[in-house]
Amino acid sequence: MKSGPTIQDIAAEAGVSKSTVSLVLQESPRIKAETAEKVREAARKLGYVYNRGAATLRGRRSTTIGMVINDLTNPFFVELLVAIERVLAQSGYTTLMAHTAENLETQTRVLRSMREQNVAGLIMSPALGTSDDLPAEIQSWGIPLVLVMRPMGADVDTVGVDNEYGFALATEHLIEQGHTRIAFAGNRKGYAVANQRRQGYLSAMAKHSLSVNDDWIIDVELTPEGGRKAVRAIFEMKPRPTAVVCYNDQVAIGVLHELDRMGKRAGKALAVVGCDNVVAAEHTNPPLTTLFAGADKLGTIASETLLARLSETQEDEKPAVQYFAVPALVVRESSVGADATTSAATKKQALVAGER
Amino acid sequence: MKSGPTIQDIAAEAGVSKSTVSLVLQESPRIKAETAEKVREAARKLGYVYNRGAATLRGRRSTTIGMVINDLTNPFFVELLVAIERVLAQSGYTTLMAHTAENLETQTRVLRSMREQNVAGLIMSPALGTSDDLPAEIQSWGIPLVLVMRPMGADVDTVGVDNEYGFALATEHLIEQGHTRIAFAGNRKGYAVANQRRQGYLSAMAKHSLSVNDDWIIDVELTPEGGRKAVRAIFEMKPRPTAVVCYNDQVAIGVLHELDRMGKRAGKALAVVGCDNVVAAEHTNPPLTTLFAGADKLGTIASETLLARLSETQEDEKPAVQYFAVPALVVRESSVGADATTSAATKKQALVAGER
DNA sequence: CTGAAAGCGCTTACAG
DNA sequence: CTGAAAGCGCTTACAG
């Protein structure tokens, strides 16, 4: 921690006051071009490094944004994080990252730390079981908050996905393929997003007058292991479902794997649909049909929502943003078998392209 | 950005000086327990939030660590990041995250930003093509640096993997299975880690007096797409290799997928070995044999190396750490076919367990 | 055991 | 167009 030259040193070197140096560093038009150049030259010569912390302390405006993520083992959230970091960096903000691993105590600790670090704003995907009061509490700290993926009420900026629509779409796709007994894997009780997804599934079934057995709605962990359990459960039912809508791609990957282990193939023995279109979904065997909402786009919108909030003044404060992306279905072999895949995939890929 | 109470306010509330408040917050034993309790009570009452930035400015000691990652689309680096963030958080440090996506300009920008943020130390996995001078430059800034996964000389702290040993191990495993024509997929030219991995492969082949055709060493992108290209190349060779060692799991996943698309199965048509043991490797079809070095352990060691560096004084400065983990092979179906998998996997899993 | 004072490196009215 | 001065919220010798 050796401390380099300060604006004071530059001022001495350039023969001006430190006020002038500060103004030059901020590219203020109030300083004559000639003087400005002299100052910049001195800064270069001394190897000056701007001290953002000091500026934040004095100017009362921070340029770091906190990003709190619940589950980085899910590649969808990684894509989201990367997009957010990229957009914020472009706007001159630095990203403070923290991972909660769905642990509420970790989340509390992390939020305190971010507050102490004086973040200008927060983007957060709350851990499961987060109290409904948390968003209001964070806002009471004076820190703008954007929630991603997991909504917690209409009065806080939220960027997510229309899960109900998406899961109805996925279910209808399976119904179109002739399936009538369709399971839902990954129904975690008391979990808002799971409720939305199940609701989408149920509404599509109801719309086509298909009945749903209670045991088709399978409550398993939202991991590959959960997917494997779901397959074992399905193959013990009789008559058994011939298709399954999975909570997300992580679950679906477990489903594909367990089928493979049983010597069966997704798309033939059991039609499978996932959600998130993670990068790996294209490379599973067989490739996975899945809902696409665009982590990159969602991350961009979340960042822009926060940036807009940061630049607004007290008076022109806008109501909370509630953005829910409409997902599209990317059809691959896991839901239609090897034969139909090419044409269907091509058709739907075009649809996806049109969406963006 | 509303500013809350400061130590000044607490001092007034508690009827002491701000020096005393500061000392209490630092849990100094110099303050009487009774006074300390009075101060803490006042802080609680006023909803005080510590301003770490101000402390850093005055105390000249920062508690943020910069983490620069080259490729977060590779889950191995995500595991590494998560481990590092966890260990640093436990020691009271905050992680500033940046992603370079292998882009040198982004890396330069990001490093400047971290320097302006006054990070106490840096953990970095340098982007491809990073100049050999960079570590020395960073150290000249007075910022301790730990390199992960990509070594750049003996005079900078480095935590990585013994790639040559690992790839020899992987290659020998295939030779043991009776393969004599073995390819290497993912040989990026001029890339130090790729050189090490190729060298391990070559030395195992040489040790067993097996000749290597030039075209068996396949230069493709280090992605699933690269793996697919490698498979197409292999199946055009005659006589063609019957096994392939892949640069990493990303490449191997592409190999598995292309084989599946050709109606062939890894482990039968072509034995496949990857490297990293990413979480997904367990869930591919078929499951992937791969080298395991333990991202979690590597991340922990990298963090601890940096923390040790941060707490050392000028005099007791230790020579650069050069830690290279010895990888183990996790044998799954992709290299041995369905029959042999259970027993072999069990045996080797035990080996892996013993390693930790 | 506690307090008064100086100062970390900046920014921002204000004066000229 | 530029400078002198005050101050952001802390920490740290130093004095008592």
TrEMBL record, chains A, B:
Tagged with keyword Transcription regulation: yes
Name of this protein: LacI family transcriptional regulator
Alphabetized UniProt keyword annotations: DNA-binding, Repressor, Transcription, Transcription regulation
Species: Paraburkholderia caffeinilytica
Keyword DNA-binding included in the entry's annotation: yes
Domain HTH lacI-type positions: 5-59
Superkingdom, natural source: Bacteria
